[in-house]
Write a structure and sequence with these properties.
This protein has 162 residues and is of the alpha/beta class. It has seven helices and six strands. Helix 5 packs across helix 6.
């Protein structure tokens, strides 16, 4: 797996990929040191390797500047359950600037009683922003959980609301 570090207005992010697609995207970190913790085993990308990412780093930068961009990127879903993949695919359909509930996602994948399991799938999301788990809230409108913390979730939703 290779990786690249991207600077955004929200902080430093890391994108990891293999020949099968994007393996992970980190949430923004305030320092470069925090962003690269745990990457000792992966390879720094070469100029040639960057072509596999297309313009994803640029689109992430534009996203964090408040631009509505799409992320149709191919994801490396090896070691992913069928359930998680279904939930993440459904979450990718949530439009920019809008939110949906865990129950909505559960219904969307044909498992209306599985809203708690949907929350678990969101907590395992390796592709934040690309799979916009920050757009998923409780049915009451409460923000619910978020791997980057609720303050970051608020900031992302505020960014998308204009």
């Amino acid at each position: 797996m290779k990786h690249i570090v991207v600077s955004t207005t929200f902080g430093w992010m890391v994108i990891g990929w293999s020949e099968r697609g994007i393996c992970f995207v980190s949430l923004p970190q305030l320092s470069l040191e925090d962003a690269v913790v745990g990457l000792e085993d992966s390879q720094q990308c070469s100029v040639e390797g960057r072509s596999l990412l297309g313009d994803l780093p640029l689109r992430l930068q534009r996203y964090f500047e408040g631009e509505a961009v799409s992320f149709p990127d191919k994801l490396d879903l090896s070691n992913t359950t069928v359930f998680d993949k279904a939930v993440w695919d459904a979450a990718r359909a949530i439009p920019y600037g809008e939110t949906r509930s865990y129950a909505w996602l559960a219904e969307r994948i044909g498992k209306p009683r599985a809203y708690r399991a949907v929350g678990g799938a969101m907590s395992r999301n390796r592709f934040p922003i690309i799979v916009p788990c920050h757009r998923v809230t409780a049915s009451t409108g409460r923000l619910g959980g978020f791997g980057g913390g609720l303050e970051l979730k608020r900031r992302l939703l505020k960014l998308e609301s204009g």
